[in-house]
Amino acid sequence: MPQKKNPDICELTRGKTGRLVGNLVAMLTNLKGLPMTYNRDLQEDKEAIFDSLDQVSNTLEVFAGMMREIEIEPERMLSAASDPGLLATDLADYLVKRGVPFRQAHEIIGKLVAFSIQHQRPFTELTLLEYRQFSDRFAEDVFAVLNLDNALRSRTAIGAPSPKNVAAELEAWNAKLRE
Question: Is the model's pTM score more than 0.90?
Fold first, then answer.
């Protein structure tokens, strides 16, 4: 319908993965039983390879067109990403850093999430006393964890979304595109 704002190109691109994974499985299945020389089994590889190349090529062409026309609304993105419930993993990590085994931290945060939902109050509106009902390891600094900027800055592993990592990755890709 015209009024819908679904990201059709993104959804269709994601949908292509099933077909491409199917082509990969077909190729791997054909190759797995081959001895060390040419066999006629390999005549079956062409369809999967050419179909995959066509699908990826067509998808990238459409995706590139979408990227040229995309309109980014930073305020809406920030609003969507600022749901404190998205930081449950950060709360579990917080407890782990304070000596709680991850399995127990996971259980504690699960109970905290249930409490938050039951009382219809996000993590940011809970008091320290309420946090401490679930674990005495919570301290005043727990509220710093419930900040999207802090959460992103703490994600520093290779491939993680810290602003520093994202900036480096963007620069690397821009350098490749300039070549």
Answer: no
